[in-house]
Amino acid sequence: MKKLFLNILLVVALSFSMTSCESCSDEANKAEDAIEEAGDAMEDAADDAGDAIEDAVDDAGDAVDDAVDGAKEAVDDAVDGAKSAANDAMDSAEKAVDGAKEKTAAELEKAADKLKTKDN
Description:
Number of helices: 2
Shape: rod-shaped
Largest sheet: none
Radius of gyration: 45 Å
Strand content: under 5%
Mean pLDDT: 82
Low-confidence stretches: none
Order of helices and strands: HH
């Protein structure tokens, strides 16, 4: 599209330069120079816009990568927390079972002592 626009500008400029009047020729040359400068400015602007788009895409990709990394870390932390909670629950359950065993053994021993004293 840039080439088409520049070709059109070149044709217009050449048509101005083909005038027979010398003053018109000078003005046509000035117009051609202005058109070339405008074409160069347009090309520079298009290049700058392309660079800005590339930078924006790169920044968006970096942001997505950072978000994925953050999500992975959050999941890892949640898994670690769940493991820790499960281990704590197991420890508490083992302590409760051990406590129940000790109380049951003590109660059985008391009951056995009472039975022995009744028999004597």
